[in-house]
Write a structure and sequence with these properties.
This is GGDEF domain-containing protein. With 335 residues, the chain is an alpha+beta fold. It is built from twelve helices and 13 strands. The protein has a six-stranded antiparallel β-sheet with strand order 2-1-6-5-4-3. The N and C termini lie far apart (107 Å).
Length: 335
């Protein structure tokens, strides 16, 4: 066959290889030369720089001529891009090999420094590149969307378990904490806390002042408890403190005393000052064969009411003598 001149070959087959009858490279297209970079191609044995992996057994120029018209799979150098190609014989006994990047090689085309201008006008490689880029963009956008959905889910779950006024955990958040502790082997304690005197402040100064007092109470509770302790507001002026890895009565009594002392400090509410205190009741997981959070909360609640009945501003540990029929006393004018 008559071989096209160099300009025509470079335009129509920018990744071609022209070889002599012995398989030695005479010239290459501009795109293949760009991919090869500093690798010298002209003058070298074609199969030494472009070994054929499929079909198997092509190891000589004669083998390559015998494969004329068949689809070949080759690789440029050691670890280079995978290529597809078709070889035909030329009239001078040489060979003309037309190459194209394989689909796997297209994913790394940025590293090869190629653009649409490096391919023949009829080559569909640029179209494939656009599709791959679109797929990459869609995958990235999908990943970002999934991340946003996950962030929204986490935020929604956090908000569902958070008291909007104090930013403490609410009853739902508290239940989740207690469920985890129940499954563990470490001891823990649950302390119920009810403010003494809150109703009088709320009635005298209004609900806005009452809300500010609850926010200050939450801040003080966080300030006197340990970093790993969990403080929750379960409703009204009722709070719960959970103490992971702690069931020592003396330590818990000390913390309860600090809580009462902190809450008895005056609170500035606008132009007014308010004073409150708190009554506390505590249940220990070590007092149960199988700790049940619901029962522990109920027992801590009974101990709390015993503290109120004993004079308020006190802390009481639950004991069986507190019984199962304790009821919250009716608050007087001082709460």
């Amino acid at each position: 066959m008559t071989v096209l001149d160099r300009a025509a070959r470079d335009t129509l087959m920018p990744m071609h290889v022209l070889a002599d009858p012995d398989g030695r490279i005479l010239s290459t297209g501009p795109t293949l030369a760009r991919i090869a970079g500093e690798m010298q191609l002209a003058g070298r044995d074609l199969l030494s720089v472009l070994p054929v992996s499929r079909p198997a057994g092509i190891v000589s120029a004669a083998d390559l001529r015998a494969a004329s018209g068949r689809l070949l799979w080759l690789r440029l150098g050691l670890g280079g891009p995978e290529l597809r190609g078709v070889v035909v014989e030329t009239g001078e006994g040489g060979m003309l090999l037309d190459l194209a990047l394989s689909l796997p090689a297209l994913s790394g085309i940025d590293a090869l420094g190629l653009s649409a201008d490096d391919f023949a006008p009829t080559d569909r490689t640029p179209d494939t590149l656009y599709l791959l880029e679109a797929k990459s963009l869609l995958s990235s956008e999908a990943a970002r969307l999934i991340a946003r959905i996950e962030d929204a889910r986490v935020t929604a779950e956090a908000q569902a378990g958070t008291d909007p006024l104090t930013s403490l955990r609410n009853r739902r958040g508290l239940d989740a904490v207690l469920a985890r502790l129940r499954e563990g082997a470490a001891p823990f304690a649950v302390t119920m806390l009810d403010l003494d005197g809150f109703k009088a402040v709320n009635d005298r100064l209004g609900h806005a002042a009452g809300d500010a007092l609850l926010v200050e109470t939450a801040s003080r509770l966080l300030g006197v408890t340990r970093g790993d302790d969990i403080v929750a507001r379960t409703g009204g002026d009722e709070f719960v403190v959970v103490f992971p890895d702690l069931a020592a009565r003396d330590t818990l009594a000390d913390i309860a005393a600090r809580i009462i002392a902190a809450l008895e400090l005056p609170v500035v509410l606008g132009d007014d000052r308010a004073r409150i205190s708190a009554s506390l009741g505590t249940a220990l997981s070590t007092d149960y064969v199988l700790p049940d959070p619901a029962r522990m909360i109920a027992d801590a609640d009974r101990a709390l009411y015993a503290a109120k009945e004993g004079g308020r501003a006190r802390h009481v540990f639950h004991t069986p003598r507190h019984g199962r029929s304790a009821r919250k006393p009716v608050e007087g004018p001082d709460g």
